[in-house]
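Ops channel
N.P.: pipeline sanity check, posting one input/output pair.
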């Protein structure tokens, strides 16, 4: 069994490739070529940490069993200087159970989550979107911004400041990498009001902006929360927007951004317009006019990790 570390993964994968893989993964899920039980989350009694176990069977040209085992410790950076996410993605031959490859999970997670945001922006954001506003400056924020810039003509990004020491380097590195202007700002209201696309990639347990600030035509991707009691978006944002999800089932179990407004009676579950796979398949509409506010709420699915991991395995087997 091969072991592939972060450095090798960064050489093997481009964001454009991962966006293509993840889009296909959402389509396979919709076509019921994926067997994916709900992920197991074990909450550890230390520093709000969690262990996630995410198995999936992919029926494509060959059947693969894939599982991700990953820890999520929101305080790791501050307390220990360690990544928030750490773990492995394992790929097995589904016909005989043979392990084929093990991949470093935090890089896969950041890339596939960013790619999901890119796929959502492709179908839900206005095609002329030029200004992004970003909440978060970690690995997930980097790939989210990279993916959005891969599918939209973004020229400027407002990075909302949390006094995070990573912000200056983030702005410099991502501005140069993507060829855009990245401006650090403490003015959340202005950043929201000027945005065509808003990306929420934080560990915040409470909403990061006021939904009344949103202007018509804005698209929001929210990927930071994956627990029922945690949310980045307030109920006003959910009330005003057309809501799209990676999975209805997963959203009802884990998406506090939706669970809390439903519990409050602000909306009900019929508020979900579609799963992203339905839009990709052409069975449900994405953005229909330039004034709609759209939200893509992602809790992250094992199929996303699986299609990227299988893509890496195929590259390795072909010698590319």
């Amino acid at each position: 069994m091969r072991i592939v570390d972060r450095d090798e993964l960064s050489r093997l994968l481009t964001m454009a490739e991962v966006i293509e893989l993840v889009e296909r993964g959402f389509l396979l899920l919709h076509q019921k070529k994926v067997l994916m039980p709900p992920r197991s989350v074990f909450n550890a009694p230390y520093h709000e940490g969690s262990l996630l176990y995410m198995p999936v069977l992919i029926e494509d040209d060959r059947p693969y069993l894939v599982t991700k085992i990953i820890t999520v410790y929101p305080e790791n950076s501050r307390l220990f200087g360690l990544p928030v996410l750490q773990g492995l993605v394992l790929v097995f031959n589904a016909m005989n159970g043979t392990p084929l490859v093990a991949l470093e999970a935090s890089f896969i997670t950041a890339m596939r989550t960013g790619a999901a945001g890119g796929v959502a922006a492709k179908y839900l954001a206005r095609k002329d979107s030029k200004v992004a506003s970003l909440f978060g400056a970690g690995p997930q924020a980097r790939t989210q911004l990279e993916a959005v810039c891969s599918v939209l003509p973004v020229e400027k990004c407002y990075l909302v400041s949390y006094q995070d020491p990573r912000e200056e380097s983030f702005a410099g590195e991502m501005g140069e990498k993507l060829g855009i202007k990245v401006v650090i700002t403490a003015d959340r209201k202005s950043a929201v009001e000027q945005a065509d696309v808003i990306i929420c990639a934080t560990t915040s347990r409470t909403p990061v902006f006021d939904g009344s600030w949103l202007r018509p035509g804005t698209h929001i991707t929210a990927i930071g929360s994956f627990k029922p009691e945690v949310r980045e978006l307030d109920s006003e944002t959910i009330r005003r927007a057309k809501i799209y999800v990676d999975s209805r089932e997963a959203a009802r179990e884990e998406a506090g951004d939706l669970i809390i407004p439903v519990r409050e009676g602000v909306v009900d579950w019929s508020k979900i317009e579609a799963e992203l796979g339905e839009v990709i398949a052409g069975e449900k509409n994405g953005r229909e006019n330039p004034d709609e506010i759209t939200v893509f709420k992602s809790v992250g699915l094992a199929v996303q990790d699986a299609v990227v991991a299988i893509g890496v395995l195929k590259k390795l087997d072909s010698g590319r």
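N.P.: looks fine end to end. The chain has twelve helices and 15 strands.
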